[in-house]
Amino acid sequence: MGVNTQCSRDNRASLSSVIRVMVQSELGVTLLLCSVLDFVSQDEMLTPLGRLDKYISSENIFNRQMVARSLLDTLRAISEDERECVSVLERIDRLADDSEPTVRAELMEQIPHIAIFCQENRPSIPFAFSKYLLPIVVRYLSDQNNLVRKTSQAALLVLLEQELMERGDVESLVCPVLVDLTAPDSSDDVKTEAMAIICKVAPMVGRDVTERLFLPRFCEMCCDCRMFHVRKVCAANFGDMCGVVGGEAAEELLLPRFFQLCSDNVWGVRKACAECFMTVSSASSPDVRRTKLSSLFISLISDPSRWVRQAAFQSLGQFISTFAGPCSNTGQYFRDEAQWIKIHTCSKIVLTRHTGTAEVLSADEPCCADADAQKCLPEETQPSSRPPVQEIPEQELFNSFHYWRTPVPRIAPELELELELELELEDRRPSAPALDRKQLQELIENLEPHIDDPDVKGECTLLLKTEVSAGSRDEEFRFTAQSVLNGFMCRVFQRRGSSLHVTHDDDDSDLSDSSLSAEDQRKSKQQDVVPQALLEQYLSMTDPSRAQTVDMEIARHCAFSLPGVALTLGRQNWHCLRDTYETLASDMQWKVRRTLAFSIHELALILGDQLTAAHLVPIFNSFLKDLDEVRIGVLKHLYDFLKLLHQDTRRKYLYQLQEFLVTDNSRNWRFRSELAEQLVLLLELYSAQDVHDYLRPLALCLCTDRVSSVRWTSYRLVSEIIRKLSSCSSLLVSFLGELVEKFCHSQKWSGRQAFAFVCQLSIEEECLSLDQFSEHLLPPLLQLASDPVPNVRVLLAKTLRQTLLEREYFLSSVNCQQVALEHTLVALQTDVDKDVKYFASVHPGSTRLNEDAMSTTSSTY
C-alpha cells in the first residue's frame, strides 16, 4: 500500500513538471510570436526610405544584401518625389562602399535595372545615372574581388547595349579605365579580363574611339610574350576588332599581328586564329584575301597540332565563302513554271524562240548598271546597226536545198546547260594530241581479248581495214580510226560498264571517274574564283584519312559548308564539287547525310532547275529511302525543293508521297505532322486533278491519325484541298460527298467532330462559296445536333454561333436552309448539356473556335 502511494505521488509530481514545461513553452512561443509581430508592425510603420536607412547599416550581411536587392522597388515606391529619389541614389553610393563582396556584387546586378528606371523617369532625375551609378560601375571594373569585377563587366555590356550611357561618358570614363587595366603592371587575370571586355566594347563604341584608345593597346597585347592567355583572347576576338577598324588600319596594323599569332608557339592561340579566320577575311580586301590570307590558312591546315588542323578545316568552308563578292557571278536562277526568277545575282539572259522563256546564257558577265542595261538585252531585242536580213520568199521556204541533210535532233532543255558547261570546260582543257599509228595499234591489241563480242569484232575489223587501206595517208587514218573508236566507246564499252578511257571526253560523261588519270581529275576541277589550293583542301575533307588524322566529324563539317562553297564558286563551277557532294551523300555516317538533306533545297536554288534535275534529284531520291533522321531533313523542305523542279519531274513525286506515312518508329508522330504541313504548301504546285487523285487520300489518312496534333493539322489540310478543288465542280462535289460519308457519318465521335471543324474552317477561310456550302455541307452539319456525344454538339454550337451566324447570307431568306438552321440553334439552346446550351445561347467575344476546339477533343497519343 505504501509503495502504491509513493508511486502515485511520483506520477503526480512528474505530471506537474510536464505541465509546467508545456506552459513555459507555450508562453515562450507566444512571446516569440508577439515579438515577431511587433517587429513586422514596426517595419510597416516605417517609410520606404526609413526601412532603407534601418537595414543599410545592419551588421547582418543578409540584411544588406536584401537592401541592395530591394533598391528598385524602393525607387518605384517614391518615384513621384524627386527629393526622395535623390536620397535613395545617395544611399546607393554609400552601399557601394560595403566591405562585403557579395553585397557589392548584388548591388552591381541591380545597377542596369536602376539605370533603366532612371532613363524612364529622366525628367524628374535628369543626371541620376552619370552622377551616381556610372562611377560605381567604373570603380568596380578594377575591384579586387573577381566576382565583383565579373558582375561589373556584365553590367557594363548591358548598359552599352541598351544605350544608357552617353558617348562622352564612355570615352572619358570607361575606356581609359579599361586601357589602364591592361597595363604591364596589372595582374594576369585582370589583364586578360580587361582585354576581353575591350574586344566586346569596341563594336559598341565605334571605329573612331577604337582606333584612338583601344587599337594601340590591342596591338601591344597581341605581342605579349609573357601571357599566352592574353594573346589567346586577342586571337579569339581578332575578327571583331578588324570589323570595327576596317580599311587600311586593319591591313597595316592588325594583319601583321595576325600573322604573328597564327605562328604562335602555343597551339591554343593558333587554334583561336583558325576559328576567327572568316571574320578576319571578311574585313580584308580581295587582294589581301587572295594573296596573303590564303597561304596563311594553308599553313594552319597543315599545322602540327591536330586541334589546330581540326579548327582550320571547320573554318575552311566559311573562309572560301568570303571570296564571293557582293555581286558574285554565280548565276543563281530557278524556273517556277514558265518564269525564271532571279536570285541575288545578275547574268546575261537570252530568249529562245522555240520555248518563249528566258534561259541563262552565261554567268560570266559582270553585273550591269542601269546605263548599260541595253547591253544585257538579247540580241534579238537590241537595236542593230546591221542591215535587216532579207526575208526568204514563201516558195523558197520549201526548197529542198534547205534540207540537204537530216536535221540535228533537238537537245532536251535539261541538258542544254550541261552542254554549255562541257563546251566551256573543253575550251579550258588543253586538247589531247592526235593518236599516231603506234598508239592505235596498241588500242587494237587491247581490244583483241574481247573479240568474241560481235560489236568488238566488227569494230576491230573495220579499224584493221582502215589501217591497211590508209597507207601513208596518216591524217586520214587517224581521223577514220578516231571516229571508229569514238563510236565503239559509246556503243560497246559504255553499255558493258567498262572503265576503259579511250578518248578525252567531257567531265560529265557517263564513264567512270576512275578511268581518269590524276592529272585529268585535277584539271577537271580547275576554277578561278578561289585559290585552287584552298579548293583542293576542301575537296580532300571527304578523304577517309582525314577522319583519322584530323577529326571524325570532318565530313559533316564539309557537308555543312558545301552550299556556301557552291554559292561562291557559282553554277558554272559545279563540276568541281559534284564528286564531293556525291561522296558525302553516300557517307556511312547518317549525320553527314542528314546535313545534306536539310540543305539540298538551298543547293538546288543555287544550281537551277537543270543541274538540279541532272545531279540533285537522284540524291534526293536516295534520301527519301534513308533513315528517318535523314528523311526529316528532306521532308521539312519538301515544298522548297519540289517547286524548283520542272513540272514533269515534280509530278513523279506524287507517287512517292505516301512513303512518308511509313516511319521507322510508329511513335514518331512529329514526322506525320510535318508531312501534313508540307502537303498544305504542295497544293499550289499541282493541278486540281492531281490533288484529288494523290493528295486527297493522304489527307484523309492523316485525319484519322491517333495523335491529336496530327489530326488538327490535317483538318486544315482538308479545308485547303476544298479550296483547291473549288475550281472544278465535279471534283469538289465528289470530295465533299466523301467527307460527309467518312466523317459526318463516322462511327467515332472524333470523326463527327472533325467534320464540324472542317466546316468551320471552310467558312472562315472562304475555301468555297456559301451557296456550295449550303448545298453540300450544311444539311449534314445540322444533323449533328442530335449526336449523342456532348463534345460534338458543343463544337457544332460554336460553329453555328461564331461562324455561320456572323454571315449575313445565313440570316437572310435567300438561304434555303435558314429555317433548318434556326430550328437547330433553338434545339441546341435547350440542350441538356450546360456547355452546349451556353455556346448556343451566348456569343463569347473572347472565345474563338481555333482556341477552344482543342479543349473539347481528346488529345490521345
From TrEMBL:
Keywords: Phosphoprotein, Repeat. One of its GO terms (molecular function) is protein phosphatase regulator activity. One of its GO terms (cellular component) is cytoplasm. Residues 502-526 are annotated as: Disordered. HEAT repeats lie at residues 174-213, 254-292, 777-800. InterPro entries: ARM-like, ARM-type_fold, HEAT, HEAT_type_2, PP2A_Regulatory_Subunit_A. Signal peptide: none annotated. Regulatory subunit of serine/threonine-protein phosphatase 4. May play a role in regulation of cell division in renal glomeruli. The PPP4C-PPP4R1 PP4 complex may play a role in dephosphorylation and regulation of HDAC3. Plays a role in the inhibition of TNF-induced NF-kappa-B activation by regulating the dephosphorylation of TRAF2. Serine/threonine-protein phosphatase 4 (PP4) occurs in different assemblies of the catalytic and one or more regulatory subunits. Component of the PP4 complex PPP4C-PPP4R1. Interacts with HDAC3. This is Serine/threonine-protein phosphatase 4 regulatory subunit 1. It comes from Cyprinus carpio carpio.
